[in-house]
Amino acid sequence: MNNVKDKVVVITGASSGIGEETVNLLAENGAKLVLGARRLDRLEKIQQKVGHDSVSIKKTDVTKSDEVNALIETAYNDFGRIDVLINNAGLMPQSFLEKNKQDEWNQMIDVNIKGVLYGIGAVLPYMRKQKSGHIINLASVAGHVVFPGSAVYCGTKYAVRAITEGLRQEEAIVGSNIRTTILSPGAVSTELTDHISDKDMKQDIDELYKNAIKPDAIARAINYAINEPEESSVNEFIIRPSSQSL
Ligand code: NDP
């Protein structure tokens, strides 16, 4: 059974880490992909590797709703439908609240929460019209438990889970046939921790990430959720390294 083949999948934050790895796996399985991120040079390299026929790219900052709208429009114009949106773009500059890093708080709220909302708002009209679709949102273990230094990041990921569950209920009520998936990874080896500016925090996180799993583990879960038959909605995953206690 390959229900991934020929599906049109839009991925935000596709330029590295989990997003890039998901592009690779879904492309192997025959999906048509539309990639968004700010680093266009990275997206161009991925497009060259995967193949121009099956991949479109669009420079997208998810904090700007008009750019998210343009990404979704690119998918529709290039491939005629949108089967899956993966709201994957995110960042995690962790620090204790006492450090008052307001710029980083705002960035996390803008990308991790508002970026997801803009994606949902942009794609729902297309999916409602098609009477089918699938929205996959990247939350985190930090959307299930709170720990010191992670209050704001956790807040954003709890929000992603709440928003996705609300979306699930609303779409089920109207019978739009739109599936939702919340994906909550533990430590995954990507560029995510590179942006932690607080030196004390970075040391602790580097320790936790010594046993991080590779992003292909998350890509396989995404592939599984998409591949399941339409009537089955895989609503939630938590995927940790086997050795992670948090
Ligand atoms: P990476 O840092 O490798 O990837 C993050 C992606 O988000 C990049 O492609 C980046 O692209 C994109 N991004 C950041 N800001 C913006 C923006 N304003 N607009 C558009 N894209 C943006 O980290 P991961 O692959 O690990 O992260 C992917 C998701 O997984 C995130 O939501 C993260 O919170 C979540 N996650 C990751 C975990 C981990 O341990 N790695 C654990 C739990 C959850 P660009 O800079 O080119 O715009």
Describe the fold and architecture.
The chain is an alpha/beta fold and 246 residues long. It contains 7 helices and 7 strands; from the N terminus they run βαβαβαβαβαβααβ. It has helices spanning 17-28, 40-50, 65-79, 102-130, 151-174, 199-208, 216-227, and strands spanning 8-12, 32-37, 55-59, 84-87, 133-138, 178-185, 236-239. Strand 1, helix 1 (17-28) and strand 2 form a beta-alpha-beta unit. The longest helix is centred in the middle third of the chain and has 29 residues, at 102-130. The structure holds NADPH dihydro-nicotinamide-adenine-dinucleotide phosphate. The site of NADPH dihydro-nicotinamide-adenine-dinucleotide phosphate has 29 residues, from helix 1.
Offer a quick outline of the entry.
With 246 residues, the chain is an alpha/beta fold.
What secondary-structure arrangement, pairings included, does this model have?
Layout (H helix, E strand, L loop, with lengths): L7 E5 L4 H12 L3 E6 L2 H11 L4 E5 L5 H15 L4 E4 L14 H29 L2 E6 L12 H24 L3 E8 L13 H10 L7 H12 L8 E4 L7
Parallel strand pairs: 1-2, 1-4, 2-3, 4-5, 5-6, 6-7
Helix pairs in contact: 1-7, 3-4, 4-5
The chain binds NADPH dihydro-nicotinamide-adenine-dinucleotide phosphate (NDP).
Tally of strands: 7
Bound molecules: NADPH dihydro-nicotinamide-adenine-dinucleotide phosphate
Q: How many H/I helices?
A: 7
Backbone shape? globular
Strand content: 15-25%
Mean pLDDT, nearest integer? 97
What are the defining features of this structure?
246 residues; binds NADPH dihydro-nicotinamide-adenine-dinucleotide phosphate; globular
